[in-house]
Amino acid sequence: MASTKVVLPGDIIDTRREEDTTQQEPIVEDEATVIRLGPGLIQASEAVTAVTAGVLHSNSDTNRWWVAGNKRRYVAAVGEPVVGVVVARHGEGYRVDIGSAHDALLPLLAFEGATKRNKPNLAVGTVVYGRVVVANSVMDPEIECYNSNTGKSEGYGELSEGFMFKCSLGLARRLIDTKAPVLAALGSGVPFEVAVGVNGRVWVNAENVETTILVANAIRNSEYLDAKQCRQMVKELLEKQ
Amino acid sequence: MVAEIGPSNIEAAFLLEALKKGTRVDGRGIYDYRTLKISCGPTYGLAEVQLGQTRVLARVSCEVTRPFPDRPTEGIILFNTEFSSMAGFGLDSNRSSTQEVAISRMVERVIKQSRAIDAEALCILAGEKVWTVRIDVHFLDHGGNLIDAASIAAIAALRHFRRPDVTIDGEEAIIHDVRERNPVPLSIHHTPICVTFGFFGAAGDMLVLDPTLLEEQVQVSSFTITLNSHREICALNKAGGIPLSPDQIQRCTQVALAKVDEVNEKIQLAIKASS
Fold first, then answer.
1. What is the value of pTM for the model shown?
2. Nearest Cβ partner of B10 from A101, A160, A214?
3. Which domains does chain A have, with CATH numbers?
4. Which residue in the set B2, B6, B23 is minimally distant from A209, CB to CB?
5. What are the TM regions of this chain, as residue ranges (chain A) (predicted)?
6. Which chain B residues have a beta carbon less than 8 Å from that of A162?
7. Residue A133: helix, strand or coil by DSSP?
């Protein structure tokens, strides 16, 4: 997209491509004309409407549209990785606080290798990394700690040790990118593990307490810094240690 | 509204492990205050305090009322707190939790019962007309240690406030419009500032200054000491938690003395910057 377009909730988005508007041909419903909507956009009858305030982005190759905004309250969406805290245990699963309006359900069997006889026993207060599988306006969200297609954990599951902190949803989304400058800069200096939930919770773990605190603070401080400033900030933090 | 839930197990365990090594999860030392930003104005009696993530706004206003019959020569000081439900989980604007009541009572006690404001100077005509000074404290964001932030905001707003000037002509009181005659500051005897400590460990042997929200949730006891710039203790508050030894209280007082001077200097600078 050439120019930056800021949208507000309720704005109707014109998702027609430039060639579509010029040619005035009847649009054929095939793979090429299917529009994929990402975070911040919903389809209301025929029109595409923004539900969050932010900058509208689109990819003309894949015909994907999304809004990059920043807020602090999470609204669950299918497929997103989240970090949650177990708040209760029920007969069929756990209730997990993922920072959204309603707690998410985590079925007892939604773990790698879990069977009716052999399933993980999580205490209240345990931190888990999972993926949202059900998210709609009428049901509580549901998460799972494995990929139900492959049966493998793929990195999801209980997060033991380490430290979890909260950040804005905008920063969390930027951290999901493997090329996030602050993570790259930190990674070249110290070894650490990180699990980013797009619900604004980040779990970090390093070999000792001091390094974990350093990594957590560097990530929190990177909110309003560009790539160059991030590298400089991380360099200064590492020198101080 | 989601009920307030405590910190996760790994956060609590990590915090205690870090404290045992003398560090805190946000990288501060145990006696470090978070970054304190005070901004006053643009109108008289408006102060906003940012203490790390915590944000508190205080607003002072006044009006002429009839005094209480038993105190005909004293002005009235009203104190009100508002907890925004946007400030954090578990804060509900419809009902107030015990924690919220404890915070607002503490700040009210610090301002009113320490007699920081000269109530007699607010009298216009004895038994007839006095000034009612109203302090509204709004909690905008909850990052822990609301008491300290609220006390700083309230004091800064009171010191920044100007009330309309009054002249008395026999039995007539003339209240001058602020455009007509320069408004006058309140007469303030002293400036009480709260300094809060959090205690950790089974015996409360680890202490930190200015606890964050996470630290407040993990702590076993908290202790607030209120001092003014003349090194006088105005209030002590320790509601619940494990008992503390006299040594610990002595140590807290020494630390608090130094902090109160720093805070007072910052308030002074903020007021000067806005005028």
1. 0.85
2. A160
3. 5-68 (2.40.50.100), 81-159 (2.40.50.140), 163-240 (3.30.1370.10)
4. B23
5. none
6. 10, 14
7. strand
